[in-house]
């Protein structure tokens, strides 16, 4: 009788443990999508760690040590670009393919990926998952209180937005690869090698990762301004974020139809791009190891390229370790800001900086509210922006202190590489490849926390959200 019952259960849908596990994942995907997102990213990192450890993935046919395999998996899935091994020579062709797949999976974003998998598991997106996905992919985020008509319409477009993320990634990377192929041929790369390097470089540019498939990196292309410009364009498209790409595709250049998020992202990105380039020109103009031996045109272009890469691109022509300490500080500041929300870039995001700058300006002017372009920014958005900066600064500070203690390396180099890891940039002074194993694990955790996002991580850690039905008496402490 027991055997018949087991057979009957198997015919109805498989083993009991399988159905329970599937049901548990479905409940987690709908009840707590932020925790589900962290779980998915963690599972992907463990999977890729195991794959990178296989002898077939290494060029020498040996097992890659666990710290290096784990760090590479985190750097790949989190689209960071830092490495503890020589990425061009350590991995076999199959290993390079795994890196290529990993960065594209990571580029979908932690919330977008979790939403898609949650949709597959639960057969539908629950309201909480839709709100979370809309917050990551939609500039018209729904906050507490009544949801206006514009937000309701966009909330219904979450499925279309998620499809746009995957489609735009495929289309943009393909277009970049087509443009890169002839430029690689013009630089002397043989046609067969260029057939692989073109899509590889395009993926590393759009995902803002910065890995190079060749041992020399971008050094052979230092004078190929067309190729470098294409890479900059790819980094820019990846860093502005999928909501901006979606808005530009839908409304083209009808500026009046752009949301406040799109305007703030584009304006802040352009301003930081030129301010960063100008800072590097001023600080590195007399440095013979970077810009000092270049003419005016080369200096200007290389400064623009470096400014674009510090936003999260990760490619580099000059030796970052030879830059002045003042330049490393500027680079750390640019990396900490990062790119746009729901993008392949990391950092605290440009809109976070814009919101805080507008709040400071409004406070200095004595205005009762923060407004720009005829729109008022609610106080909860300002609190989220402040929280993101506080969490990000705390993570960077703790990681910097820990790694500086473990390595006894110069503080400016440690800070630069830690910020690069947190903001998933990939630029390095050379310190990362020399880290001892304990520091490697610390840097891996920093990259993970920077990629999943401080807000998402905080939401995943929070056990419950409680509603307070009463207000406490007001008392103003002295601030400042």
From TrEMBL:
Q: Where in the cell is it found?
A: Cell membrane
Gene coding for it: trkH
- How would you describe this protein's topology in the membrane? Multi-pass membrane protein
Please give the Gene Ontology molecular function terms for this protein: monoatomic cation transmembrane transporter activity
Q: What is its main location?
A: membrane
Q: Which Pfam families match?
A: TrkH
Q: Name one GO cellular component term.
A: plasma membrane
InterPro entries with a match to the protein in the record: Cat_transpt
Q: Name one GO biological process term.
A: metal ion transport
Q: Which domain of life is it from?
A: Bacteria
UniProt keyword list? Cell membrane, Ion transport, Membrane, Transmembrane, Transmembrane helix, Transport
Membrane-crossing ranges are: 36-57, 97-121, 161-181, 225-249, 261-283, 333-361, 381-407, 439-463
Cell membrane found in the keyword field: yes
Q: What is this protein called?
A: Trk-type K+ transport system, membrane component
């Amino acid at each position: 009788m027991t055997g018949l019952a087991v057979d009957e259960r198997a015919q109805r849908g498989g083993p009991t443990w399988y159905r329970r596990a599937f049901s548990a994942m479905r409940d987690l995907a709908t009840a707590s999508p932020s925790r589900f997102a962290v779980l998915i990213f963690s599972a992907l990192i463990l999977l890729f760690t195991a794959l990178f450890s296989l002898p077939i993935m290494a060029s020498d046919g040996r097992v890659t040590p666990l710290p290096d395999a784990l760090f590479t998996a985190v750097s790949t899935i989190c689209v960071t670009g830092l490495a503890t091994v020589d990425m061009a020579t350590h991995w076999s062709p199959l290993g390079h393919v795994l890196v290529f797949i990993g960065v594209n999976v990571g580029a979908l974003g932690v919330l977008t990926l979790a939403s898609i998998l949650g949709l597959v598991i639960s057969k539908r997106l629950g309201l909480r998952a839709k709100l979370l996905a809309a917050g990551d992919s939609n500039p018209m985020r729904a906050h507490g209180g009544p949801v206006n008509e514009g937000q309701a319409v966009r909330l219904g477009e979450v499925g279309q937005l998620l499809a746009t993320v995957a489609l735009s990634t495929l289309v943009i990377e393909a277009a970049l690869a087509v443009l890169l192929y002839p430029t690689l041929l013009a630089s002397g790369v043989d046609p067969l090698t260029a057939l692989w390097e073109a899509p590889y470089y395009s993926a590393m540019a759009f995902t803002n990762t910065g890995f190079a498939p060749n041992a020399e990196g971008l050094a052979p292309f230092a004078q190929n301004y067309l190729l470098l410009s294409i890479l900059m364009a790819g980094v820019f498209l990846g860093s502005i974020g999928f909501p901006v790409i979606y808005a530009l595709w839908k409304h083209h250049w009808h500026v009046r139809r752009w949301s406040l998020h799109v305007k703030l992202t584009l304006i802040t990105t352009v301003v930081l791009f030129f301010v960063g380039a100008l800072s590097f020109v001023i600080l590195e103009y007399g440095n013979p190891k970077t810009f000092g031996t270049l003419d005016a045109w080369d200096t200007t272009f290389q400064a623009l390229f470096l400014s674009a890469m510090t936003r999260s691109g990760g490619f580099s022509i000059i030796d970052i370790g030879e830059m002045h300490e003042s330049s490393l500080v500027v680079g750390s500041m640019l990396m900490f800001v990062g790119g746009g929300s729901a993008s392949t870039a990391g950092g605290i995001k440009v809109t976070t900086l814009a919101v805080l700058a507008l709040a400071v300006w409004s406070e200095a002017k004595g205005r009762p509210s923060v407004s720009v372009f005829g729109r008022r920014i609610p106080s909860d958005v300002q609190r989220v922006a402040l929280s993101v900066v506080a969490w990000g600064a705390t993570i960077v500070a703790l990681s910097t202190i820990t790694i500086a203690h473990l390595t006894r390396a110069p503080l400016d180099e440690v800070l630069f590489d830690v910020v690069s890891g947190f903001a998933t940039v990939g630029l390095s002074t050379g310190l990362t490849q020399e880290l001892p194993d304990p520091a490697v694990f610390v840097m891996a955790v920093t990259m993970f926390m920077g990629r999943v996002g401080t807000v998402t991580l905080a939401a995943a850690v929070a056990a419950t959200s409680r509603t307070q039905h009463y207000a406490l008496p007001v008392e103003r402490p002295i601030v400042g």
